[in-house]
Write a structure and sequence with these properties.
heterodimer; A: about 800 residues; alpha/beta; 5-stranded parallel β-sheet; about 35% helix; globular; B: Rieske Iron-sulfur Protein; 4-stranded antiparallel β-sheet; 3-stranded antiparallel β-sheet; Rieske_2Fe-2S (chain B); nitrite reductase [NAD(P)H] activity (chain B)
Chain lengths: ~800, ~110
Amino acid sequence: MKKLVVIGAGMASGRMLEHLFEVAPGEWDVTLFNAEPRGNYNRIMLSPVLSGEKSFEEIVTHDAGWYEAHGVTCRFGERVVSIDTARKEVTGEKGAVAYDKLVIATGSEPFMIPLPGRDLEGVIAYRDLEDTNRMIEAAAPGARAVVIGGGLLGLEAAAGMRLRGMEVTVVHLMGHLMERQLDPAAGYLLRRALVDRGIEVLCSANSKEILGENGKVRALRLDDGTELPCDLLVMAVGIRPASALGRAAGLAVGRGIQVDAQMRSSNPDVLALGECIEFEGQLFGLVAPLYDQAKVAAATLSGESASFTPREVSTKLKVTGCDLFSAGDFAEGPEREDIVFRDPARGVYKRLVLEGNRLIGAVLYGDVADGNWFFGLIKDATDVSEMRETLIFGPAFQGGAPADPMAAVAALPADAEICGCNGVCKGAIVTAIQNGATTLDAIKATTKASASCGNCAGLVEQVLAVTLGDAFVAPTARPMCGCTEHPHEDVRRLIKAKALKSMPAVMQELGWKTPNGCHSCRPALNYYLLADWPLEYKDDPQSRFVNERNHANIQKDGTYSVMPRMWGGMTTPDELLAIAAAAKKYNATVKVTGGQRIDLLGIKKEDLPHIWADLNAAGMVSGHAYSKGLRTVKTCVGTDWCRFGTQDSTGLGIKLEKRLWGSWTPHKFKLAVTGCPRNCAEATCKDLGVICVESGYEIGVGGAAGMELKETEPLAKVASEEEVIDITVAFVQLYRESANYLDRPYKWIAKTGGLGWIRAQVVDDLENRACLIARFDLSQSIYQKDPWAERATPDYQRAWSPLADLTKEAAE
Amino acid sequence: MSFVDIGALEDIPAQGARVVRTKLGCVAVFRTADDRVFALADRCAHKGGPLSEGIVHGHKVTCPLHNWVFSLETGQAQGADTGQVQTFAAKVEAGRVLLDAAQMKTESAA
């Protein structure tokens, strides 16, 4: 087998290996070096990872199984030290390997402006997963970030951090954002959209110095003296080819490693591709030409003839809600003419640049549906003189075709490009559909269309719909309910990012399709709003399920059950006497519950305020047995009585319950504290369970004993009661802030990708833990009130009785 | 029809309901977000749940027991469920809610 060494596991080399194993299976013994400690992933999708719309696992393009299946020796996390082209050998940090052919795909390095202070802790680029994770880690609400650079990457970084709740300022040297892709008018609209979501944008702003404190970044100072305080500073001002290895190996290097159209460097056994190369004086930063290069490089290695020609590229910004498209050349010039369309109310701007009879550039903002059609006209150098008058209105207006996006897709010719990243045209997709690929995922798998940046997924679905007709079932992004397109995660994030503080604001801003929601979304929105804005939002009883509105559990016959709180499962003879008296007075059935409480069943609605008043008078408050909130803390008798008890489990349980009661959570929340590992309080199947041991306390989370049976996972082991309480409160608050409505903690934990992130937030990061506790206590200042006491009043007694009694009149 | 005054509009919470007791069973009187009132038998066609305790959205209510949804205008079950709940004439005049009592005497509300 011939030996191939590849340096760099990026998008270009990953694609090249795919092609190579396809055309020449078993011919190459491949060694793959990567300085990052992981294999190929879809770097374009780091922005959705940053904003939380995707997880890292979702953007991995080649996993360990793939490398193994193709016999690739992976040397990840190992830098290449040198290349010896004479001996045909590559030396990594852990040793040398010989090659017959070498492919350099080292990509690019972020350009760091040589500002004073750039070595401070907290000054980062936006290039790889490490950078992304740094931003995610820094993103506590209220934390501040400054992004230098208002280009594609900088804005995606800014929007992602903003969505995670940070205060973000973008500092851009030029007069408008994305000046290489946008004209000033579209740049203005983009700026306005970003400002609307709470991002501060400074254009024509020149950075002077990064200020630090104790070796950590504190602020950015501009040349006009303005200081922008920040906890994190992201430089996204550009990239340059990582060509140092090639230069050291004696290859011809200009700005990048110089290659010919077959992707060969000045040494015929050394190929290069991707962002590290220079071809006819040109550098490459977008993915589409990289994939073309990958195809050519694979052909060259297989001894086939292929040659690379740079092509037109188009740009889309991956910021949810900012629709922006640009392609071609849109600088003004003497021979050039503009066609401009504006609709300020809709925030739409379109500009086409014509030279002679050809379209040479397009900038679209706000409505980008026709982007691919314009792009096609640019690439094909179509003579547009015939349709010039209606050109700006897009394909729907050409030849009287109806303004229907499906018709527009249906009208596209077979060679119209659908996926710009992977160069997939409509014909290839239609063929794949006819061969049985009838879902978006199947199209992705067979043609790669929409498999990279994903922007064309909608278009691919339209091709599916046009080709399959009624047989096509559109995939659901699992929206919250039929009232909205948004899934829970988006709604939660947007409520925070857009500071939406009322139900009408959410429904208006997020485009609800119903006038006032439904029984599914209203309780969720009510919860999200009261959890995120405890001071500003007013709880809406009419958006609550009956149990939470009536503060009792409805039973199948329309009566209710009433359950007083018994702190930590402890009660007294006097409380029991009061409960017994109330049970007799209201004719209740009495049941002892699994959570160490006493339940009174069969209470009529109009009696509820009366029985509450009776129980209140005996010193008892609501047990919240009906709520998506803190339920019970179950305990054992601990060191008070038990010969095996190691700590005061009862006392700790009572302290936890007194701190947490009254709080609303995404789903019910149950705790237990048990005094020794014999686990009499069954702490290992609770949402949070504490097991006391001689040396302290073991906190486990994510247990459940309902429809699913789950054992808790260990979160932390601590020495003091105070730490147990702090970590518990912080955990509950993090759950309150980030879980989907009706996800129990175990489901939420699974969706966050395991306990790692949660542990970092509530156990390891003490400052963050303190912030979570402070936010919980703020919310409790509003919500820790006994609902019974508030409702055991004559007004409520009236409101909870029938409005009128017509039985007498009817009897007349 | 013989409308009787059963109370003030503000006695019913917007997007909520109150119950009127009649000899033939309870009637749920709903007030929607647009301040219209609708009266339906307070028994779900499915398992008899109290519709008056359901979440009101648009001109619809969702039964609190098993999430059946009914049109307040027609009493018809929505979506895949089939069934109907009896409706009664109701209206608002000068801030007072009026219910057709003649109907109560002649028809079964339960």
